[in-house]
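Try this one yourself first.
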């Protein structure tokens, strides 16, 4: 039986999630070194689908500890990814922070904890990424926050409590 390989440059969003899940599992089982994993992630995240898929999986999966440990080789490769990496991590910080407030209001503690974990992972990554890129991205968010929202088209804006919490989370990056 022939093994099917996926060209990382052509991977769909869903394929990128699945690839990331497999690599994280292999890394967690010590079947993949940090350096090899970092090189693979660097290749995957060169495309929009790869970037989105990797972070969608790695930030949200409670059993993937890669973004909790943040190996140096991974941070090095993420920094090579430049503003695109910084921007997607900042966007995930903003979205997960806003969701924390919604989950608290709904008394949905399980989802609140998941969103807090995503937010904490984002802040940890941002603390290690190139400072100028992070500063540029968070300053843009702070300028645009009133026009941002809970929906893909921003038709449902963040409310004042969410905006204040997002600002607190951004300030927390410097801690």
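Now uncover the answer:
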């Amino acid at each position: 039986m022939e093994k099917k390989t996926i060209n990382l440059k052509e991977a769909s969003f869903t394929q990128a999630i699945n690839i990331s899940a497999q690599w994280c599992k292999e890394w967690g089982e010590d079947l993949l070194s940090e350096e090899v994993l970092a090189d693979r992630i660097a290749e995957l995240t060169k495309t929009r689908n790869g970037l989105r898929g990797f972070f969608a999986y790695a930030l949200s999966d409670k059993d993937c500890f890669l973004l909790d440990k943040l190996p140096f080789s991974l941070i090095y490769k993420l920094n090579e990814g430049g503003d695109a990496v910084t921007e997607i991590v900042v966007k995930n910080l903003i979205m997960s922070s806003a969701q924390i407030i919604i989950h608290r209001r709904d008394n949905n503690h399980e989802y609140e904890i998941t969103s807090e974990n995503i937010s904490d992972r984002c802040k940890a990554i941002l603390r290690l990424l190139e400072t100028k890129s992070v500063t540029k991205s968070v300053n843009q968010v702070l300028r645009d926050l009133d026009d941002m929202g809970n929906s893909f088209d921003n038709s449902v804006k963040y409310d004042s409590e969410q905006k204040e919490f997002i600002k607190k989370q951004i300030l927390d990056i410097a801690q």
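Discussion: Residues 103 and 133 are 30 Å apart (CA to CA). The first helix runs from residue 13 to 28.
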